[in-house]
Design brief:
This protein has 128 residues and is of the alpha+beta class. The chain has a single domain (8-127), classed as Roll (Diaminopimelate Epimerase, Chain A, domain 1), CATH 3.10.310. Helix content is 48%, strand content 23%. It is built from four helices and five strands, in the order βαββααββα. It has a five-stranded mixed beta sheet. A hairpin with a 2-residue loop joins strand 2 (35-41) and strand 3 (44-50). The longest helix has 26 residues, at 102-127. The chain is globular. The two termini are 26 Å apart. The model is unreliable at 123-128 (pLDDT under 50).
């Protein structure tokens, strides 16, 4: 069994990156998973997560659980990126974290993926 790729690590200065981003977006849409990027900029990274690649039926679940998701992500930042002055902008359909130390960025990106998939998976099972 192969491991599900949960995010794309991307150098912001990469030439020809648009094609790579398009392929990653298409992959996420086809698999029905969150579109998560880790944009590397030296020793820091920005993490971008967009739920546009999820089924529209999940929008209500994301809206209803927005505060829960937001609190958990802020706790992740406080725990894994403490002292970094990382900033966040979190709404029900997108998550943007800026200035996250590279030592923590990939772990946080994967944790966001797991949080969302676990939340949506539990809802899908409950609704069957």
């Amino acid at each position: 069994m192969t491991k599900q790729q949960t995010y794309l690590k991307f150098d912001d200065e990469l030439v020809g990156g648009d094609e790579l981003l398009t392929r990653w977006y298409n992959h996420c849409a086809q698999e029905g998973v969150p579109y998560i990027l880790v944009k590397v900029n030296g020793r820091k990274a920005n993490i971008e997560c967009d739920f546009i690649t999820l089924e529209s039926a999940m929008d209500d679940v994301l809206q209803q659980n927005h505060q829960k998701i937001k609190i958990q992500i802020i706790q992740m930042l406080a725990h894994y990126a403490h002292g970094s002055r990382a900033t966040h902008n979190i709404n029900w359909s997108t998550i943007n974290l800026e200035g996250v130390p590279m030592r923590s960025a990939e772990f946080i990106a994967e944790s966001i993926f797991k949080l969302i998939v676990r939340l949506l998976g539990a809802i899908k099972v409950d609704n069957i």
